Amino acid sequence: MFSLKLIGYFAGFFSTIAFIPQVYKTWKSKSAKDVSMHMFVIFSLGVFLWLIYGITVNDLPIILTNCVILVLALTQVILKIKYDKTSVNCR
Amino acid sequence: MFSLKLIGYFAGFFSTIAFIPQVYKTWKSKSAKDVSMHMFVIFSLGVFLWLIYGITVNDLPIILTNCVILVLALTQVILKIKYDKTSVNCR
Protein backbone atom coordinates (compact mmCIF):
# COMPACT_ATOMS: atom_id res chain seq x y z
CA MET A 1 0.00 0.00 0.00
CA PHE A 2 2.96 2.27 0.68
CA SER A 3 4.32 1.88 -2.85
CA LEU A 4 0.83 2.45 -4.30
CA LYS A 5 0.57 5.77 -2.45
CA LEU A 6 4.07 6.61 -3.69
CA ILE A 7 3.03 5.92 -7.30
CA GLY A 8 0.04 8.23 -6.78
CA TYR A 9 2.24 10.99 -5.36
CA PHE A 10 4.75 10.71 -8.22
CA ALA A 11 1.91 10.64 -10.77
CA GLY A 12 0.45 13.82 -9.26
CA PHE A 13 3.88 15.45 -9.02
CA PHE A 14 4.80 14.84 -12.68
CA SER A 15 1.39 15.83 -14.08
CA THR A 16 1.57 19.04 -12.04
CA ILE A 17 5.12 20.20 -12.81
CA ALA A 18 4.77 19.25 -16.50
CA PHE A 19 3.22 22.65 -17.26
CA ILE A 20 6.20 24.63 -15.94
CA PRO A 21 8.43 24.00 -19.03
CA GLN A 22 5.63 25.11 -21.37
CA VAL A 23 5.04 28.37 -19.49
CA TYR A 24 8.81 28.95 -19.30
CA LYS A 25 9.31 28.24 -23.01
CA THR A 26 6.51 30.62 -24.01
CA TRP A 27 7.76 33.34 -21.65
CA LYS A 28 11.36 32.96 -22.94
CA SER A 29 10.58 32.73 -26.68
CA LYS A 30 7.70 35.24 -26.48
CA SER A 31 5.85 33.06 -28.97
CA ALA A 32 2.99 30.60 -28.55
CA LYS A 33 1.41 30.39 -31.99
CA ASP A 34 1.82 26.58 -32.16
CA VAL A 35 0.25 26.17 -28.71
CA SER A 36 -3.47 25.42 -28.85
CA MET A 37 -5.58 27.97 -26.98
CA HIS A 38 -8.48 25.48 -26.99
CA MET A 39 -6.32 22.91 -25.22
CA PHE A 40 -5.43 25.22 -22.34
CA VAL A 41 -8.93 26.67 -21.98
CA ILE A 42 -10.61 23.22 -21.97
CA PHE A 43 -7.89 21.87 -19.67
CA SER A 44 -8.32 24.81 -17.27
CA LEU A 45 -12.06 24.09 -17.16
CA GLY A 46 -11.33 20.43 -16.31
CA VAL A 47 -8.82 21.40 -13.63
CA PHE A 48 -11.26 23.96 -12.18
CA LEU A 49 -13.88 21.19 -11.88
CA TRP A 50 -11.28 18.91 -10.20
CA LEU A 51 -10.63 21.76 -7.78
CA ILE A 52 -14.34 22.05 -6.93
CA TYR A 53 -14.44 18.25 -6.58
CA GLY A 54 -11.42 18.34 -4.24
CA ILE A 55 -12.91 21.13 -2.13
CA THR A 56 -16.25 19.27 -1.90
CA VAL A 57 -14.66 15.99 -0.74
CA ASN A 58 -12.10 17.96 1.32
CA ASP A 59 -9.10 16.23 -0.26
CA LEU A 60 -5.98 18.37 0.22
CA PRO A 61 -3.74 16.66 -2.42
CA ILE A 62 -6.47 17.15 -5.09
CA ILE A 63 -6.97 20.79 -4.01
CA LEU A 64 -3.24 21.64 -3.95
CA THR A 65 -2.18 19.94 -7.21
CA ASN A 66 -5.15 21.37 -9.12
CA CYS A 67 -4.54 24.85 -7.69
CA VAL A 68 -0.97 24.77 -9.02
CA ILE A 69 -2.01 23.34 -12.42
CA LEU A 70 -4.81 25.92 -12.75
CA VAL A 71 -2.41 28.81 -12.06
CA LEU A 72 0.08 27.44 -14.63
CA ALA A 73 -2.59 26.72 -17.27
CA LEU A 74 -4.17 30.19 -16.89
CA THR A 75 -0.69 31.79 -17.02
CA GLN A 76 -0.18 29.97 -20.34
CA VAL A 77 -3.53 31.28 -21.63
CA ILE A 78 -2.57 34.87 -20.66
CA LEU A 79 0.91 34.55 -22.24
CA LYS A 80 -0.61 33.16 -25.44
CA ILE A 81 -3.10 36.04 -25.69
CA LYS A 82 -0.26 38.51 -25.06
CA TYR A 83 2.27 37.08 -27.51
CA ASP A 84 -0.20 36.13 -30.27
CA LYS A 85 -1.08 39.83 -30.49
CA THR A 86 2.53 40.91 -30.97
CA SER A 87 4.00 37.97 -32.89
CA VAL A 88 5.03 38.33 -36.52
CA ASN A 89 3.76 35.65 -38.84
CA CYS A 90 6.56 34.59 -41.21
CA ARG A 91 4.53 32.32 -43.46
CA MET B 1 -23.54 12.73 -4.03
CA PHE B 2 -24.95 12.42 -7.57
CA SER B 3 -23.86 15.93 -8.51
CA LEU B 4 -20.42 15.31 -6.97
CA LYS B 5 -19.95 12.27 -9.21
CA LEU B 6 -21.15 14.35 -12.14
CA ILE B 7 -18.54 17.05 -11.38
CA GLY B 8 -15.88 14.30 -11.30
CA TYR B 9 -17.04 12.89 -14.65
CA PHE B 10 -17.06 16.34 -16.29
CA ALA B 11 -13.63 17.14 -14.79
CA GLY B 12 -12.23 13.90 -16.19
CA PHE B 13 -13.95 14.45 -19.54
CA PHE B 14 -12.57 17.98 -20.05
CA SER B 15 -9.03 17.15 -18.89
CA THR B 16 -9.02 14.18 -21.28
CA ILE B 17 -10.39 15.80 -24.45
CA ALA B 18 -8.29 18.96 -23.90
CA PHE B 19 -5.35 17.37 -25.70
CA ILE B 20 -7.28 16.72 -28.93
CA PRO B 21 -7.14 20.38 -30.15
CA GLN B 22 -3.36 20.51 -29.57
CA VAL B 23 -2.71 17.31 -31.54
CA TYR B 24 -5.07 18.52 -34.28
CA LYS B 25 -3.43 21.97 -34.44
CA THR B 26 0.06 20.47 -34.71
CA TRP B 27 -1.06 17.95 -37.33
CA LYS B 28 -2.80 20.67 -39.38
CA SER B 29 -0.10 23.36 -39.16
CA LYS B 30 2.78 20.85 -39.34
CA SER B 31 4.58 22.98 -36.77
CA ALA B 32 5.16 22.53 -33.05
CA LYS B 33 8.21 24.62 -32.30
CA ASP B 34 6.41 26.64 -29.59
CA VAL B 35 5.16 23.46 -27.91
CA SER B 36 7.39 22.30 -25.06
CA MET B 37 8.74 18.77 -25.55
CA HIS B 38 9.58 18.66 -21.83
CA MET B 39 5.96 19.34 -20.96
CA PHE B 40 4.60 16.44 -22.97
CA VAL B 41 7.33 14.00 -21.91
CA ILE B 42 6.94 14.82 -18.19
CA PHE B 43 3.15 14.82 -18.53
CA SER B 44 3.23 11.42 -20.31
CA LEU B 45 5.32 10.05 -17.43
CA GLY B 46 2.76 11.34 -14.93
CA VAL B 47 -0.14 9.91 -16.92
CA PHE B 48 1.68 6.57 -17.27
CA LEU B 49 2.03 6.44 -13.45
CA TRP B 50 -1.69 7.28 -13.08
CA LEU B 51 -2.39 4.39 -15.43
CA ILE B 52 -0.31 1.99 -13.28
CA TYR B 53 -2.11 3.39 -10.21
CA GLY B 54 -5.51 2.83 -11.86
CA ILE B 55 -4.60 -0.73 -12.90
CA THR B 56 -3.35 -1.51 -9.35
CA VAL B 57 -6.53 -0.25 -7.65
CA ASN B 58 -8.62 -1.65 -10.53
CA ASP B 59 -10.39 1.68 -11.20
CA LEU B 60 -11.84 1.68 -14.73
CA PRO B 61 -12.42 5.48 -15.08
CA ILE B 62 -8.76 6.16 -14.08
CA ILE B 63 -7.54 3.47 -16.49
CA LEU B 64 -9.67 4.63 -19.44
CA THR B 65 -9.11 8.40 -19.13
CA ASN B 66 -5.35 7.98 -18.64
CA CYS B 67 -5.12 5.55 -21.58
CA VAL B 68 -6.71 8.16 -23.86
CA ILE B 69 -4.56 11.02 -22.48
CA LEU B 70 -1.39 8.91 -22.81
CA VAL B 71 -2.14 8.09 -26.47
CA LEU B 72 -2.82 11.79 -27.22
CA ALA B 73 0.28 13.03 -25.32
CA LEU B 74 2.57 10.50 -27.02
CA THR B 75 1.05 11.38 -30.41
CA GLN B 76 1.94 15.01 -29.68
CA VAL B 77 5.53 13.99 -28.80
CA ILE B 78 5.84 12.03 -32.08
CA LEU B 79 4.37 14.90 -34.15
CA LYS B 80 6.73 17.38 -32.49
CA ILE B 81 9.78 15.21 -33.24
CA LYS B 82 8.57 14.81 -36.83
CA TYR B 83 7.79 18.47 -37.56
CA ASP B 84 10.70 19.99 -35.61
CA LYS B 85 13.01 18.14 -38.00
CA THR B 86 11.37 19.55 -41.10
CA SER B 87 10.28 23.00 -39.94
CA VAL B 88 11.94 26.13 -41.27
CA ASN B 89 13.03 28.64 -38.67
CA CYS B 90 12.09 32.13 -39.83
CA ARG B 91 13.82 34.12 -37.11
Could you explain the architecture of this structure?
Two copies of one chain form a homodimer. Chain A is an all-alpha fold and 91 residues long. Chain A has one domain: Monooxygenase (Up-down Bundle). In chain A, helix 2 packs parallel to helix 4. The longest helix of chain A is centred in the last third of the chain and has 27 residues. The first copy, chain A, is elongated. The mean pLDDT of chain A is 92. Chains A and B meet through helix 1, helix 2 and helix 3 of A and helix 1, helix 2 and helix 3 of B.
Helix- and strand-based class of chain A?
Answer: mainly alpha
Largest interface: A-B, 42 and 42 residues
Oligomer: homodimer
End-to-end separation of chain A: 54 Å
What's the CATH class label of chain A? Mainly Alpha
Low-confidence stretches of chain A: none
CATH topology of chain A: Monooxygenase
Q: Work out the number of β strands of chain A.
A: 0
The CATH architecture of chain A:
Up-down Bundle
Secondary structure: helix percent of chain A: over 70%
Counted up, domains of chain A total: 1
